[in-house]
Design brief:
mainly alpha, 2 domains, about 0% strand, single chain, 7 helices
Length: about 140
């Protein structure tokens, strides 16, 4: 798969690496295990993104260099630091610059629109399904 070619991974990593936050050592004695490399975590995330496999399978496909738990924790750190939001914005800007975005005919999720207007998602679903779609916490209580 082209996304796994070393030159592709290297180019994508070069775009992401400057955005990755520098870790802060919070251990009072500094005597804990060494932090896994960000690049190894990135490769597991890339495998998961490209193949849509589970975190555990992505870990195995990458040779068990980093545990799936560590990768998910790193992903959360990067989300909090805005890494993926910045990458998404750069991708959209690049696409617009190279190909051009045509926003003259925007696309909407018709199911969400139907729910917002009080209609059902399909003939068999009820307004409760729409309420659950729009506000999952509202329907998680008791059934009436």
């Amino acid at each position: 798969m082209r996304a796994f070619d070393p030159e592709v991974k290297d180019i994508v990593w070069q775009a992401i690496e400057p955005l990755v936050p520098v870790p802060v050592d919070k251990h009072p004695l500094g005597c804990h295990r060494h932090r896994k490399f960000d690049r190894d975590c990135f490769e597991v995330m890339l495998v998961r993104l490209v193949t849509s496999c589970s975190w555990e399978d992505a870990e195995r496909l990458c040779g068990n260099k980093v545990s799936d738990t560590t990768v998910r924790e790193r992903r959360d750190e990067w989300i909090a630091a805005g890494v993926f939001e910045t990458i998404a914005n750069e991708a959209i800007f690049g696409y617009d610059r190279i190909i051009g975005l045509d926003l003259s005919e925007p696309v909407a999720n018709i199911y969400a629109a139907r729910c917002m207007l009080g209609g059902s998602v399909s003939r068999r679903s009820s307004s409760r399904a729409c309420a659950a779609h729009m506000n999952p916490s509202a329907t998680s209580g008791s059934r009436s």
